[in-house]
Amino acid sequence: MNTADVYQKYASFIFKYLLTLTNNEQAAEELTQETFYQAIKSIDNFHDSGKAKFSTWLCSIAKNVWLQELHREKKRHQLAESLSDEKKLAYNLEEEYFRNEDKIQFFKLAHQLSEKKREILYLRLLGDLSFKEIGSIFGESENWARVTFYRAKQQMRKGDKGDES
């Protein structure tokens, strides 16, 4: 059976399956095309398995294509949301000014810490590393990193210039 025969035989079946998933004719049509494109690309996988019916194999491809589209749509939605959020924030100059002032104050206080405490603070807050990872960087324990980080925060809250390690 050649590619055109396969498409003629199964396209309606796959379209109906995708229509039940999407509840949208246009999306079902596009996903049907993508399903057959993916099937042609991976036809050797079907021949190698020899277990599933061809229609079942096509349905599994269709479902994966649909799930990938849902994932892409979710990502597009998140991107659009984040861009609109950024636009809202950019227009509030007063809020932006105070946020920058907080950053400046944070870095001024952090600069007063010992080099070790400052580095731990940066690794944790800016590098998003775990206490275990920080401890291994310094050749110390996870608990040591946690305690040192806590002491650095306390010192910053007090505005101390103490340089204890």
UniProtKB/TrEMBL annotation:
InterPro entries: RNA_pol_sigma-70-like, RNA_pol_sigma-70_dom, RNA_pol_sigma70_r2, RNA_pol_sigma70_r4_t2, RNA_pol_sigma_r2, RNA_pol_sigma_r3/r4-like, WH-like_DNA-bd_sf
Source species, domain of life: Bacteria
Keywords: DNA-binding, Sigma factor, Transcription, Transcription regulation
CDD domains: Sigma70_r4
Domain RNA polymerase sigma factor 70 region 4 type: 111-156
Family recorded in the similarity comment: Belongs to the sigma-70 factor family. ECF subfamily.
NCBIfam families found in the cross-reference section: sigma70-ECF
Name of protein: RNA polymerase sigma-70 factor (ECF subfamily)
